[in-house]
Design a protein that fits this description.
alpha+beta, 563 residues, five-stranded antiparallel sheet, Beta-galactosidase, Chain A, domain 5
Amino acid sequence: MNLIGKASDPKFWAEIKNKPEFKHMLDLLIRDYENDGMGEIPCTKFSKFRLFNDIGDRSVYQVDFFKRQHRLFILTAMTLIYENEPKYLELLQDTIWELCDQYVWALPAHMPNITENNNCELDLDSTTIGYALALIKAMLGDRLHDLIKARIDAELDRRIVKPFLSKRWHWEFRENNWTTVCSGAVGCTLMLNRPEVFDLVQDRINHNMQTYIDFGYQDDGVCTEGAGYWSYGFGYYLTYAEMLKTYTNGRVDLTKGEKVRNIAMFLQKLFLDENVIVNYGDCGIGNKVTMPAGYLYLLKTLFPDDVELPPENTFAYEVHYFTYFLNTFRFYDPSYKSAKLSKNAEYFMANQGWYVKRTPKYGFACRGGSNGESHNHNDVGSFIFSKNDRQVFCDIGGRPYTRQYFEHPIRYTFLETSSRGHNVPIINGKYQGNGGERATTTFENGTIKMDFACIYHQEELTKLVRSYMPDENGVTVTDEFIGAKEFTERLVTLVEPTIDDGKITVDGVTVTFDKNQAKARYETETHALELDINGEITKGQTVYLISIDVNEPKDKFTFRIDA
């Protein structure tokens, strides 16, 4: 049974290099080959492997780890497309050989105990590496040396099949991207390479997929992990679903249902402008956004009447999104590159209390929900305001991943994750708490209201209701409260503000308030952009933290944001 369609046809790949519509992608592929496809194969050293366990750093080891994967994917694509160039196949087989020798395919950050000799851990990376090798074998077939194919079979059995059959894994019961990425990758690997085993565990994997849909989302389709993890987790859900539908001759179709449809439509509800997206959670700074083109093509192919694609300049063609890179060719349709973003849109996602408004003058988003979500930031009630294709009052995104970043309570001491670094009030000198308490959010008569006093974990704070009233020129924000002896409005921006009595100006956007009720000031911090080669956090972007200190608050304060 052909589970990958024309991707298994050498003629399909041979014709790609002569098609002008793929020139841009091939130029990027050749660039990547020249940078990362030649020379010595990166070595994954023990001295780097142990760093996560010793000091919490994961980036130093992962540089070589992901370079090796990237090399594998580059050489696979080059071998498929430039079939008459034997050097690409030779380099690919060398890389596969080394990958089969690698101690473990999982990341040390995902291993429960690296002091044990456990080199068959199943995590996000080991399962997807297994799927990539099964896919490579299926596409290249007899072009691979018999010993290479035998080693792929042996390592997939040892590192994927036997561990999966040996027990139920923690990620089978989670409510986030782990469930579908790991389950979907294992399922696709088995369909391609061990169909007789897949027949035994199909129900188990399908149940895992349904767990992700049932508990990772509510009916509004919001991914609280953010847009990046939506494309990762839901992307593997669709990858598995598409292959499973072929495998079962259409009998099992996991893309059906209103809830799945709403999840598929999530991205189109997040755009504030051509290149600005709502970036709550562990996402990057939201001034620009890209999504793997092959994922968007697959999404549109499976949901042609529902999904609205973003502008083509937001499509990413990097080959390290391996299955998506292949999908860029498999599901290409010229109409997918001509999408236009409407300048007028409004969405209220009631279950999670997210609201997004896009206008010709500005973009605006705010969120309710809870501070007990996967990849959580303490940001209930926060908002984003954009103008001229960039965030002005922004969400500064996540922090470089370290062990400490995921340890409670250390996680919430960082600016990026604390409510101190979000557009929400500071009450009685304290920030929001972390936990499962939920805001009550409504949208009526053009006004979003959030009741979220419980988020601050302060007994004396008996009322906190924030109202957002957007109109064609901007947004009026009102906070009503009882039990706040000190009340400070916090605004976060990456552009230095100008502050006068009762007026704040940032990048052409003005904030006005009653100067007799409050006084504004600002301080600066630096946003951690990355880790250097030694695992030290590199400070980068300057963040301006504006405080509007309310004088002797009674029970209400209002400020106005105009584009």
